[in-house]
DNA sequence: TGTGGGCGCACATTTGCCGTTTGCGGCAA
């Protein structure tokens, strides 16, 4: 018997009880028991007090004893007999929950998708109290659609969708202001929908205009408080628009940014003080509703610092609020150290990239075009990069407000050699090494390549260390903890590639790296000027790993950057 | 069903919108 089995047993019991239309708190008690075990870091053999855990009581404890003594649970066995297995897929039908399924089963003996479909077609469902004609029609539709439902979309796809919706909203004059909310605002790697808060005095006008200008596949719901639609934008995507007044904006933005767990924690705090948080404000004990000019003021009202959206996760961020002041922010960023120009596969000249970085207020930057192995990217030969170096040096003399360093993003070749010889690397200020080929090699071969790069004295940083593309490919599967150890050993930087396609390293590895005192560079890897903006979302992603300012080398002043990295 | 506070009974992770039906389930952050 292991912990996983116990956890899965609890979850199954909860699921079956839900299908029986059991008391939701009873169902919840089994889910909670599963959760308690999951959150406990100890293995089963280390838990001598398992029956004494908070959340495990008489009923749930009996299940554990059953499992430990007999390897199976009597309760689950009974439920499995009582609940037809065909019922389980019914929970996936939007609009059907445990209670409605139980009702249908009791009234019509529904025990599978097929019997439900038949009951809808013979119009028996609409005769059941609580169900009507519309529900019956909708159920039939949903049954046909089952399985074709859209999954989660990667953040880079969501970003495109958000931008295009925002462009449409700017054209609606009745919209006073708006903001994206939801999981995209929290910089999640994947989202299942997009959420917007809209300030307007004329919600119904805005609603109708949105329905006109957006590529609507389906209108799910639409009132004066919200509009829910399915949009047809390359992929199908759910979109929610919430209409609020200016005064409600801050609390609405907070509420619809989530996460749900974060909101629940905040509301618990309010409740313990006799107050009530909703998206419309904070209701105090005397019944008056207080609103706020900003999320910052809202948090301050509960004696909390501003918690950045990206940190609003499982609620535990509230317990760590005093650490927030030390985390990296976009304002701390002084430079971007990975970008491409027309010399390789970038879209803009060196000068144009420099001007763009100046506009961002950076004090320094590094030009890092590809090297000649990467033919598709027009990688630079030794001769061309020497020309580029002299061009950059000349250009650098024109500016006294930004320092332009000569760098490269050098390929680590499939056989473990590096694309440039040491004597050439020596002439550069900053060397990024990265893998762009032969992803299917064994982990051993990949690690040999990475070791060759990270142990080279002229290499400063390993870029996008796993090669993953979110929602598309897993990368080349390096042993990242080992790579982090090497980074520590050779005093090298690892990259957090801020391009939303990558977010590489991922959160869990960033946390390990920071613990090991390995420095991180957040880079945009920009191939065009507008991609320099990805520093913002890159920093948000870094915050999710609780990266401190001093961990991130982009926050270092120019002098420190030169002293510790360029001329170390 | 579990916990807490008191041995029987609340309250449980919060709050509000919409659709469909006319009280409430499902859903969302």
Automatic annotation (TrEMBL):
Signal sequence segment: none
Gene3D superfamilies reported for this sequence: 5' to 3' exonuclease, C-terminal subdomain, Beta Polymerase, domain 2, DNA polymerase beta, N-terminal domain-like, DNA polymerase, thumb domain, Metal-dependent hydrolases
Keywords: DNA replication, DNA synthesis, DNA-directed DNA polymerase, Exonuclease, Hydrolase, Nuclease, Nucleotidyltransferase, Transferase
Originating organism: Sporosarcina luteola
PANTHER family given in the database record: PHOSPHATASE YCDX-RELATED
EC number(s) given by UniProt: 2.7.7.7
Reaction catalysis annotation: DNA(n) + a 2'-deoxyribonucleoside 5'-triphosphate = DNA(n+1) + diphosphate
Name assigned to this protein: DNA-directed DNA polymerase
Any Gene Ontology CC annotation: cytosol
GO MF assignments: DNA binding; DNA-directed DNA polymerase activity; exonuclease activity; phosphoric ester hydrolase activity; zinc ion binding
One GO BP: DNA repair
Cofactors named for this entry: Mg(2+)
SMART domains in the cross-refs: HhH1, POLIIIAc, POLXc
Enzyme class: transferase
Cross-referenced Pfam families: DNA_pol_B_palm, DNA_pol_B_thumb, HHH_5, HHH_8, PHP
Listed InterPro entries: DNA-dir_DNA_pol_X (IPR002054), DNA_pol_B_palm_palm (IPR028207), DNA_pol_lamdba_lyase_dom_sf (IPR027421), DNA_Pol_thumb_sf (IPR037160), DNA_pol_X (IPR022312), HHH_MUS81 (IPR010996), Hlx-hairpin-Hlx_DNA-bd_motif (IPR003583), NT_sf (IPR043519)
Domain Polymerase/histidinol phosphatase N-terminal residue range list: 335-414
Domain DNA-directed DNA polymerase X: 1-313
Domain Helix-hairpin-helix DNA-binding motif class: 48-67, 88-107, 123-142
